[in-house]
Queue: 4 jobs
Job 1
Amino acid sequence: MTESKKRIAYKPIINYDDNAGANPILTAYIIMQEDGICPVFHGREDNIKELTEGFDEIGLLPFPTPSEACEVLDDFDPDNDNVIEDWALNMIFDEEGSEGTENRLDALVEAAVAAGFEIVERDFTKDAIERDERDAQARGAK
């Protein structure tokens, strides 16, 4: 009997108090891209199984949908603004607190588990800081 490969869904650890100068969700997205991890955005929970077919590692990203951003921010324009920008994420967080982000993350976790993924918490902000330090040391050694 062959053992099937474990499928992992990374749940970002979001530290709302210490975000190293960037929104922790945006930082997670950047690290996922660098590491070749398939990002799964909130709002796509219904078809997560199809979206992640062929991927053993996915990353859960609780970005608000444009319609959610419009509900929270009066001046958010879904035709010209992007929820993936730092300013929008920070303003949405300021308005709704951590509850909205945590609710979106919970929905993603539930969908990932239903699709057969094991949830692993990962501190992408810590990863980013460590990479920046390594890169700075490498540049200094040249």
Note: The beta strands are 8-12, 38-41, 57-61, 118-122.
Job 2
Amino acid sequence: MDENRLPELPQEAFRPMIAQSVQLEQFLGEELIFCFRDLDGVHTFTTCYGDIYKTVNALRDYIRLLESVCDQWELTGFHRATYEYHAEKLRKIADMVLLKAMAMYRM
């Protein structure tokens, strides 16, 4: 295989799929304020549920892609572990963002 050429991926393996639906449609336009702390201190930003909805769905799409290419590309060892590790970390982030957003709405 030519080193500069990316492997071909079967379209049916990577077509859009709904793994978990995020039920935020009724809240999409509502504004909310997110606060988080990092090494630089406390940061605040204003967003809306529509942005959260898109972000969580994008993360889940990327998670699914990372997991599916492991088998498709026959990854093993370190490469497979790296993809699986990143998928799990992104899943935790997506779940945490969604839980925080839902908790903020209930306030």
Note: The first strand starts at residue 31 and ends at 38.
Job 3
Amino acid sequence: MISYQDPAGREPEKLYHGFILGLLVQLEGDYDVRSNRESGLGRADMLVRPRAPGRPGAVLELKVPQRGETPEQALLAAARQVRNRRYAVELVAAAPVHELVAVFDGKRAWVRLVDEVLGAKDGHAPGQSTRADVEYIVVRMW
């Protein structure tokens, strides 16, 4: 049993990482779920790569706000990290690729599409994914 107080240690992101990875493992029949895999110019927290070409894939970057950082600031930092480090490059055979960022703070969680977070902030035009897509992906995963 996991408590919302468990992430109070030195590296709270690892607890959330393990929890989400455990939820995604059920997708293994249709997807390769990889944790901390090198992709692009760094290591994505999680890549969900379809085993069949033409199916959607996903990049997930997880964050816990640092001291004094708001969830919105953490989301923006995570979204920029996904884009700047080009994590989706390994998923070129997937169509479409959903880039998601999640921020966890105790019992609260925020999940957003990278395009939604960056929007006009970084000059990226919104992509094909919508908030409804995120809700579908999250529900389908769980």
Note: The CA atoms of residues 76 and 117 lie 6 Å apart.
Job 4
Amino acid sequence: MRKIFCFFILLFFFFSNTSVRAENPFPLYDSNSFCFRHANTPDGVSDQALSACLSQQSIALYRVKHQWDSVPSYVQSECDRLNRKYGDPDYAALNSCLTAQMALNPPQIFKKKPKEPKSGFFLDPLATH
């Protein structure tokens, strides 16, 4: 009985110390399909456009990966949601959203958790105004 109790105590401590970021895992987008769709022309796939797109996605993926853990979770989820909204998510758009939101709302050190913004708080970088 005592072993079972200790086991459950250990499980509790293990799961209680998990990262807060686990609720917003790093988003995975299909850059290859995205670039093939955007490089497709009536004459076939443009190798130059495909290469440029894949390069742009690779650079944006690198930038997003390196800033993801420092971005507040509500910004992560909202930028990911906006990026998926139009059905063709890509890392360049995600990077633009994260950069814009962090410029508008620079991270601060809070003693308490900050209030989450109202629903109309975020700019939609892909929307046409």
Note: Strands lie at 40-41, 44-45.
